[in-house]
C-alpha cells in the first residue's frame, strides 16, 4: 500500500490574534480527519496596520505599537535560524500562553515558550530588534497578496483543481470544531472558497473565543 498523499494547507498566522488561534486549533483537528498537512507561515498585524493607526482607538493603537511586533519577530527569526518546521510548535507554545493561560505578551512569556520547544532563549531578544523585519515583511506579503489588504489573520491557501492556489481569510469560528465537525467545516470551506466569484459569508459575532 502507498501512503495517502496529503494536501498542503499553507497557514499564515500572527500569534497575537485570538481568532487566528481558534482557527489554527481547528486546523490541527483537520489534520487528524482529512489528508491535510498544515505548513505554518508568519504574517503580522503590526505590518498590516502600520498605516492605519490613526483610524484605531487608543487601546488598539497601543497594542499595535507595543505588543504586536515582538512575537512575530521572534517567530520569523526562529524560522530563519532553525527552519520553518519550528513554527508550528512555537506557535502552539506562544498561543497557549497568550490565549489559554492569559499570560502577558512579554519577554518572560516568550522565553518560556522558546524553552518549551527547545529553542534558544536569546531569540526572545529579537522582539526588540528590526534585524529580521525584511523577512517578516516578505512572509507577510506572500500571504496577504493572495487575498488582498481588506482582511487579517489567518490566511489559508490550498491547491485548487486547476493547480492554482485557493486562498481565503478565516474561517472565524468558536469553539474550534473537533472530529467530524472539523472535517465538515473543512469540506464546506473548500467548497465555497473554490467557487468562482465567491467572496464572503459573514454574520455578527455574538460570542468571544472559547479556549478549550
Describe the structure.
- The chain has 212 residues and is an alpha+beta fold.
- It is 45% helix and 11% strand.
- The chain has eight helices and four strands.
- The protein has helices at residues 18-33, 45-49, 58-66, 69-82, 87-100, 107-116, 133-144, 179-193; strands at 7-13, 36-42, 155-159, 165-169.
- Strands 2-1-3-4 form a four-stranded mixed sheet.
- The mean pLDDT is 95.
Instruction: Note the overall shape.
Output: globular
The tally of strands reads 4
Distance between the termini: 37 Å
Return the average pLDDT rounded to an integer.
95
Task: Report the radius of gyration as a whole number of Å.
Answer: 17 Å
- Give the low-pLDDT segments: none
How do the strands line up in the largest sheet?
2-1-3-4
How would you sum up the major sheet?
Answer: 4 strands, mixed
**Strand percentage:** 5-15%
Helix content: 40-55%
Could you say which structural class the secondary elements and strand pairing correspond to? alpha+beta
Given the structure, what is the number of helices? Answer: 8
Give the ordered list of helices and strands. EHEHHHHHHEEH
Keywords, please?
single chain, 212 residues, alpha+beta, 8 helices, 4 strands
Give me the secondary-structure topology.
Blueprint (H helix, E strand, L loop, with lengths): L6 E7 L4 H16 L2 E7 L2 H5 L8 H9 L2 H14 L4 H14 L6 H10 L16 H12 L10 E5 L5 E5 L9 H15 L19
Helix pairs in contact: 1-8, 4-5, 4-7, 5-6
